[in-house]
Structures are given as structure tokens and as C-alpha cells.
């Protein structure tokens, strides 16, 4: 198991970028040219772990619960290889508000800035695979064309999704995140830097249990004072029901790359759908892999959002 960073401590130094990552989705080199500002916010996840939800939370905190703010327009996925890097960098440079950027990279493939604040969002890998299957299976031909046929792709194209979700999960587990990108190193790398003062871990399940409490933690981390009268508005616009009803504002490009549109992208927002589908052997194999890859403390946190 590769170890990129020493165990986290409050005095740990900022991680260094050690590699670039390229595939049908990624071009990590874009981060090399980002001119960071002191109040930048970076939302980091493996994928389908609550990324969009957390982007919405941050935007609502920054913009005082404004329902018209569209994270699909203001919060770019920086390491996505389309649109072209120069266009993406120009858009970021033109923004005058507090910026919210998104990444799906592990820490050692990211240019990490001590100026920015990083929110890492995690979710049980079985729930991620279920959500990822919905995302992948319902993708349109245009989605495949953009990822596979746009110049600059490194490595093989992304294939069509297996329609059988249990088989899809087994393929994803056996090949560590295929056909997307490695899962365990992503979680492990962010867990290792969890005690840095500009890193805050968020868990999908914790948000489900106590959204208001978790949003207050995020607000404190981002040093945002929210007026008492603004909280109800923020919470309303961060609820799954509100996001589903206004999916066009939060889904990338309004959801044009998925059959069913934005409401397919903002899917069910539920965990545990795998419980009645996976076999006992599947579940045991996943849990043994999590323990071996992450260690007991991180594996327990990944499964529940609670400390071991």
C-alpha cells in the first residue's frame, strides 16, 4: 500500500505535488497555473460522495442563502480536462466573489495552497459505487463524446456502464475505481492531512444525520458569520428536496449530459441501497479491502462518518 504522507498532525507542513494524473476525465496540470487567493475554498472528493451538496452548502454560506446562485456556473471542476485549461483559468481569474473550486484528485496530485481552505467529502464506497452507476449508466452519447473524443485524452476511453449494478460494483472494487480512478488512495491521502489547519473533513452520512450541525461546522471552518435570520434560508436551499426541485441550478450544464436531465444527476441522496443487492461475500470483501487499504480508524470513519 503506497504511503504518500506521514500521519497527520497539527504541525504538519503542507503536502507537495508529486505527480500528474491524466485520463478520460483528468488533467491535473491545470492546478499548476491557478493563482490562489487567500480566501479560496476547494471542495475535494473522490466523486459521488456529496460533492455537489457541499458546493451548494459553501455557496449558500458565502452568498447569504441566495436561491439564485448557481453552483453549476460559478464552481468549476478544475481538473476536468474540458473545457480547455486557459478558458477555465480565465473564468476563475474574472470571478470577484469568494471562489469555490472542485477537485477529484488525491492530495499528492494536487497543487495544495496554504492560502486556501479544503473541504474533503467522503462516503462509504458502496454508496459511492451505487451513485456512480446511476451517473455512468444514464450518461448520454454526448457525455461519452466529450470525454473520449475531445483532443487531449490520455489512456483508454471510458466504456459503457454495465447495466447490472451489483456487477458494476464488483468491477469497481476489483479494479480499484475503474473505469474512473483509484478510490482508496484518494481517501487515504486526504485522511493523512486531516489535521492541517486548512483542511476539514465532511462525511455524507454525517450531513444526512445532522445537516444543520454539520453546516455550522463548515461555516466556522470557513470563518463565515451567518446572521441568525439567514440560517433558515441557508438550510432550506441546502436540503436535498430543494436541490432536487432546482436541479438545473446545481447540475453541470443543467444536466444535459444525462438521460432525464438534471434530476438524474441529483439522484436519490440515500445510502444503503446496496444492502439488499450485494451478497454477504461481496460485503465482507469490501470491508476487508477497506481495512487493509485504510487502517481501522479511517475505515470506520469512511463507513459511518463517526470516529472509531
From TrEMBL:
**Would you say which domain of life the source belongs to?**
Bacteria
Residue intervals of the Sulfotransferase domain: 39-288
Q: Name one GO molecular function term.
A: aryl sulfotransferase activity
The protein's UniProt keywords, in alphabetical order, are:
Transferase
Give, as one word, the top-level EC class.
transferase
Cite the InterPro entries for this sequence.
P-loop_NTPase, Sulfotransferase_dom
Which Gene3D superfamilies does the UniProt record give? Answer: P-loop containing nucleotide triphosphate hydrolases
Query: EC no.?
Result: 2.8.2.1
Which family is this sequence assigned to?
Answer: Belongs to the sulfotransferase 1 family.
Question: PANTHER family of this UniProt entry?
Answer: SULFOTRANSFERASE SULT
Full protein name: Aryl sulfotransferase
Which lineage? Bacteria, Pseudomonadati, Pseudomonadota, Alphaproteobacteria, Sphingomonadales
Amino acid at each position: 500500500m503506497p504511503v504518500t504522507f506521514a500521519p497527520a498532525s497539527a504541525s504538519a507542513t503542507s503536502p507537495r505535488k508529486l505527480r500528474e494524473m491524466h485520463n478520460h476525465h483528468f488533467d491535473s496540470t491545470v492546478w499548476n497555473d491557478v493563482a490562489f487567493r487567500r480566501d479560496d475554498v476547494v471542495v475535494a472528493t473522490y466523486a459521488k460522495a456529496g460533492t455537489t451538496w457541499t458546493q451548494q452548502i459553501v455557496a449558500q454560506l458565502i452568498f447569504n442563502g441566495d436561491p439564485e446562485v448557481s453552483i453549476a456556473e460559478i464552481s468549476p471542476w478544475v481538473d476536468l480536462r474540458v473545457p480547455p485549461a486557459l478558458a477555465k483559468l480565465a473564468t476563475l481569474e474574472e470571478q470577484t466573489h469568494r471562489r469555490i473550486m472542485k477537485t477529484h484528485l488525491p492530495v499528492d496530485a494536487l497543487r495544495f495552497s496554504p492560502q486556501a481552505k479544503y473541504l474533503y467529502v467522503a462516503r462509504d464506497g458502496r454508496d459511492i459505487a451505487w451513485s456512480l452507476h446511476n451517473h455512468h449508466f444514464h450518461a448520454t452519447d454526448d457525455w461519452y463524446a466529450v470525454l473520449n473524443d475531445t483532443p487531449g485524452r490520455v489512456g483508454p476511453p471510458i466504456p459503457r456502464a454495465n447495466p447490472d449494478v451489483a456487477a458494476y460494483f464488483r468491477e469497481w472494487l476489483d479494479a480499484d475505481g475503474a473505469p474512473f480512478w483509484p478510490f482508496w488512495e484518494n481517501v487515504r491521502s486526504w485522511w493523512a492531512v486531516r489535521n492541517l489547519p486548512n483542511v476539514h473533513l465532511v462525511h455524507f452520512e454525517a450531513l444526512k444525520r445532522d445537516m444543520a450541525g454539520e453546516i455550522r461546522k463548515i461555516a466556522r471552518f470557513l470563518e463565515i458569520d451567518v446572521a441568525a435570520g439567514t440560517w433558515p434560508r441557508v438550510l432550506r436551499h441546502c436540503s436535498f428536496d430543494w436541490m432536487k426541485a432546482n436541479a438545473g441550478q446545481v447540475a453541470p450544464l443543467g444536466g444535459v449530459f444525462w438521460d432525464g436531465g438534471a434530476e438524474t444527476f441529483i439522484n436519490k441522496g440515500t445510502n444503503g441501497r446496496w444492502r439488499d443487492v450485494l451478497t454477504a461475500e461481496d460485503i465482507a470483501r469490501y470491508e476487508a479491502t477497506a481495512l487493509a487499504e485504510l487502517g481501522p480508524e479511517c475505515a470506520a470513519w469512511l463507513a459511518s462518518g463517526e470516529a472509531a
